[in-house]
From TrEMBL:
<feature type="domain" description="ACT">
    <location>
        <begin position="337"/>
        <end position="414"/>
    </location>
</feature>
<dbReference type="GO" id="GO:0004664">
    <property type="term" value="F:prephenate dehydratase activity"/>
</dbReference>
<dbReference type="InterPro" id="IPR045865">
    <property type="entry name" value="ACT-like_dom_sf"/>
</dbReference>
<dbReference type="InterPro" id="IPR036979">
    <property type="entry name" value="CM_dom_sf"/>
</dbReference>
<keyword id="KW-0584">Phenylalanine biosynthesis</keyword>
<keyword id="KW-0456">Lyase</keyword>
<comment type="pathway">
    <text>Amino-acid biosynthesis; L-phenylalanine biosynthesis; phenylpyruvate from prephenate: step 1/1.</text>
</comment>
<dbReference type="InterPro" id="IPR036263">
    <property type="entry name" value="Chorismate_II_sf"/>
</dbReference>
<dbReference type="InterPro" id="IPR018528">
    <property type="entry name" value="Preph_deHydtase_CS"/>
</dbReference>
<protein>
    <recommendedName>
        <fullName>Bifunctional chorismate mutase/prephenate dehydratase</fullName>
        <ecNumber>4.2.1.51</ecNumber>
        <ecNumber>5.4.99.5</ecNumber>
    </recommendedName>
</protein>
<comment type="function">
    <text>Catalyzes the Claisen rearrangement of chorismate to prephenate and the decarboxylation/dehydration of prephenate to phenylpyruvate.</text>
</comment>
<keyword id="KW-0963">Cytoplasm</keyword>
<dbReference type="Pfam" id="PF01842">
    <property type="entry name" value="ACT"/>
</dbReference>
<dbReference type="Pfam" id="PF01817">
    <property type="entry name" value="CM_2"/>
</dbReference>
<dbReference type="Pfam" id="PF00800">
    <property type="entry name" value="PDT"/>
</dbReference>
<dbReference type="InterPro" id="IPR002701">
    <property type="entry name" value="CM_II_prokaryot"/>
</dbReference>
<dbReference type="InterPro" id="IPR002912">
    <property type="entry name" value="ACT_dom"/>
</dbReference>
């Protein structure tokens, strides 16, 4: 069967799935409670094994989180059957893609699908919930189509881990790496399909380690993730028993005013990650230990989130990049990242930047970094609001060559402006 026909079949299944979810949203009396052991048992008795048990559970957990849990067994069976039928179609798509040498994961198609599904719900279900549910449906599909592995800056439970899950879901395999360089190497050597690294924070600025690694790496940017950073206070003790706070220094900086107002007498101990902080809070609870960080770290160590959203800036967002072997085709709403170094001539930088203005290309970001090859020589990292294949960008790059000693396109990818959630 042709690829387009299979995709039409998947679209029809998605339409039925959205219809079931809309019916649940309009029938609050049929909403099921969440007891993990009971949910797993019920789902396992219904599913025929075409989708792994854990994947079915991850999908249904998001359905329940959206307040759409199903008590009607016939309706639940229909939901699981549709998910299994979708998995069959996805498997066929994967086989066709492999035969034709196409990439299994297509981030530009993923975002287009999510937007279409959200519109199909007609506002009955929030876009946030649709995205969370389908993140897990597509994660199960990726796991079935290909043995997808995602490298990220570890350890487990960090915001980079959370960002990776928000993009790829729980069904794929994650490979925590000790540092930024290891993430790049893991993908470059084929040990992981993609990598996830932070590139900038809305309050702290650019992540210089990531910028520097692009100079010599052959990897491309194929997607971005915007993650709203909401730090919280977590502990295994009551709030009034807290004597010492553990966290990463950046988190302490982001929550400085809140700590002064709410826990002014608590000692602050800096550690290497929020995951490490959560581990210490669990081990030293009897000594009055607590941690500050994200919900994933709290979940991993069985800590209670005593208060959420304690960062001083409520608009604290980190942008992460997904890196892989190939970049993405144009979508009509793209961003291109590139780096260049200018010739050692008067006015070179001004002339280089004017090439984008001349083609009416918006430059949304520029950062400079030392080249580390010669004193006072710099690389410039630029983001523009267009795709590298757009005619005006091609013309600008041709002109840019006249003023630069080196130009490197890091990748073009969809310019997503929606922050992912932390659930």
């Amino acid at each position: 069967m042709p690829l387009n026909d299979i995709r039409k079949k998947i679209d029809a299944i998605d339409s039925q799935l959205i219809q079931i979810l809309n019916e649940q949203a309009n029938n609050p009396s049929d909403h099921a409670a969440f007891v993990e052991s009971e949910v797993r048992s019920k789902l396992n008795s219904i599913s025929d094994g075409r989708i792994p048990e854990d994947s079915i559970f991850f999908i249904y957990r998001e359905i329940i989180s959206a307040g759409l849990g199903i008590t009607n067994e016939s309706k639940l069976s229909k939901l699981v059957q549709l998910l299994n039928d979708r998995a069959d179609c996805v498997h066929i798509v994967g086989e066709i893609k492999k035969k034709e040498g196409l990439q299994i994961y297509a981030p530009e198609r993923e975002e287009s699908l999510l937007r279409k599904l959200s519109s199909m719900s007609d506002g009955v279900i929030s876009e946030k919930s649709i995205r969370a549910i389908y993140r897990e449906i597509m994660s199960a599909a990726l796991a079935l189509e290909d043995d997808l592995k995602i490298a990220y800056l570890g350890p487990e439970g960090t915001w980079t881990h959370q960002a990776a899950i928000s993009k790829f879901g729980h069904s794929v395999e994650y490979l925590p790496q000790a540092n930024f360089s290891d993430v790049f190497e893991c993908v470059n050597h084929g040990d992981a399909s993609y990598g996830v690294v932070p590139i900038e924070n809305s309050t702290e600025g650019a992540v210089s380690h990531t910028l520097d690694l692009f100079v010599d790496s052959p990897l491309k940017i194929c997607a971005q993730i915007l993650m709203r950073i909401e730090n919280g206070l977590m502990a295994d003790i009551d709030r009034d028993a807290i004597k010492t706070l553990y966290s990463h220094p950046q988190v302490f900086g982001q929550c400085k005013n809140w700590i002064l107002e709410n826990l002014p007498h608590a000692d602050q101990v800096e550690v290497s990650s929020t995951t490490k902080a959560a581990c210490i809070a669990k081990e030293k609870a009897g000594e009055g230990a607590a941690a500050m960080g994200g919900p994933l770290a709290a979940e991993m160590y069985g800590l209670t989130m005593l208060e959420s959203g304690v960062q001083d800036n409520s608009n604290n967002t980190t942008r992460f990049l997904v890196i892989g072997e190939k970049t993405c085709p144009p979508t009509g709403d793209d961003r291109t990242s590139l780096l260049f170094s200018v010739k050692d001539e008067p006015g070179s930088l001004v002339k280089a930047l004017q090439t984008f203005e001349a083609q009416s290309i918006n430059m949304s970001k520029i950062e400079s970094r030392p080249s580390k090859q010669r004193e006072w020589e710099y690389y410039f990292y630029v983001d523009v609001s267009a795709h590298a294949e757009d005619v005006n960008v091609v013309k600008a790059l041709e002109e840019l060559k006249k003023h630069c000693s080196m130009i490197k396109i890091l990748g073009s990818y969809q310019d997503i402006k929606i922050s992912n959630t932390t659930n």
